[in-house]
Design a protein that fits this description.
This protein is mainly alpha-helical and 379 residues long. Among the domains are: 146 residues, no CATH class; 84 residues, no CATH class. The chain is built from 13 helices and six strands. The strands form three sheets. A two-stranded antiparallel sheet has the order 1-2. The chain has a two-stranded antiparallel ribbon with strand order 3-6. It is globular and about 75 Å long.
């Protein structure tokens, strides 16, 4: 009996050890079995390189990109002017990261189209109100007078095809393609070979003369704000509230402070869900049926009333629930343990960002000036 009991206890102990040892592995397998996880304002694909980054790394990317972009578009013309090539490089990096994170479909169908009018308005604002700047003037097409067949048309067709295949929205795809085509046609120096192979005459051209410095400044502001906007999207589209809590606790922040920070970020996701529910309810009531665009904008204003009411109700219920559970007077609380560790990839990325910041901001280098000295960028 003693041998059987000892053997049985040994088997139970082995099972207990195996069960305890495999708990983290089961959690990891369960996480790996999921294809998507909910972020602040989207569902992110699991397993992408961006998803594996630590939350501290993502926050550092936003801060570094923002500081560098602000410095690049504020360089005075006495020191060479805004760093256009550097801003294009920054914006390209941010867009590539968004594509790697597999958020391009949601971005194209929503925030990419919404942000483009803002960036275009920013460009026109700085272009119109800086006509008094010194320096040579260059021609810009308001309308080129023809339909070009060349690089601009190829880029427009490619953009339309990619956006339509990803989003399935005809209007958004056509709008983005038209904006890209017009951006390629507006600079008059790009209207000839090798950028344009053939022209289809349409009407007389409309050309305006603007200062070169005004164009550079307006373009730099639009690119810089594009970096700021899409860097923020990179964080919101690829980060979960649990990662924020874990990162704050790793930084030795008190649990209650980290908890309320998590609630604040979680509400971003909840507000979007409430917005979708209110919008579906209005569609079910035919609130926007047969309305002109102005009436639809007014309907969006009406949606804010039930949205704000639901936010107030949820915050009140949450406060009552926390008070009922003694959260305010709790001496010890269950600690949240973040399983994501800070890897060498995070360290390498932060080191590169720090080097980039020192090279550009502290040392005062400009990629545009460097490329001009090498003869690969016009002076």
């Amino acid at each position: 009996m003693s041998r059987e009991s000892s053997g049985r206890s040994g088997q139970e102990e082995g099972k207990g050890k195996g069960k305890g040892k495999g708990k983290e592995e089961e959690e990891e397998e369960e996480r790996a079995s999921k294809k998507y996880v909910r972020t602040f304002i989207y569902s992110m694909r699991v397993g992408t390189p961006v998803e594996k980054l630590h939350a501290i790394t993502k926050i550092a990317m936003i801060l570094f990109f923002s500081v560098i972009a602000i410095y690049m578009f504020d360089i005075p013309f006495s020191r060479g002017g805004p760093d256009l090539l550097g801003l294009i490089l920054l914006l390209s990096i941010v867009l590539i990261l968004l594509a790697v994170a597999r958020t391009a479909k949601y971005l194209v169908s929503s925030y990419l189209i919404m942000a483009l009018p803002v960036l275009i308005g920013e460009f026109l604002w700085w272009l119109v109100f800086n006509q008094g700047l010194a320096g040579p003037r260059i021609p810009l097409y308001v309308w080129p007078g023809y339909f070009p067949i060349g690089v601009s048309t190829g880029l427009a067709v490619l953009a339309f095809a990619l956006v339509y295949l990803r989003s399935g929205r005809l209007f958004s795809s056509a709008l983005l393609a038209a904006l890209l085509w017009f951006a390629c046609v507006v600079p008059a120096p790009l209207d000839g070979p090798p950028f344009t192979f053939y022209r289809i005459p349409a009407s007389p051209a409309v050309i305006i003369q603007v200062p070169q410095e005004a164009v550079d400044l307006a373009l730099a502001k639009a690119l810089g704000y594009g970096v700021l906007i899409y860097a923020a999207f990179l964080f919101l589209l690829t980060t979960r509230d649990a990662e924020i809590v874990g990162a704050l606790l790793q930084l030795k922040v008190k649990f209650k402070q980290a908890f309320f920070a998590a609630l604040m970020f979680r509400n971003l996701n909840t507000i979007l869900l409430d917005y979708d529910n209110v919008r579906v309810a209005q569609r079910a009531r035919a609130a926007a049926a047969g309305r002109n665009p102005l009436k639809r904008v007014i309907d969006l204003g009406y949606m804010s009333v039930p949205l704000i009411a639901s936010m107030i109700k949820r915050s009140t219920e949450m406060g009552v629930a926390l008070h009922a559970r003694g959260f305010e007077t709790a001496g010890t609380v269950t600690q949240y343990r973040e399983t994501r560790s800070f890897t060498y990839v995070d360290a390498v990325i932060i080191s590169l960002l720090l080097f980039f910041l020192v090279y550009v901001v502290i040392m005062g280098n400009s990629f545009t000036s460097l490329a001009a000295r090498w003869g690969i960028w016009p002076r």
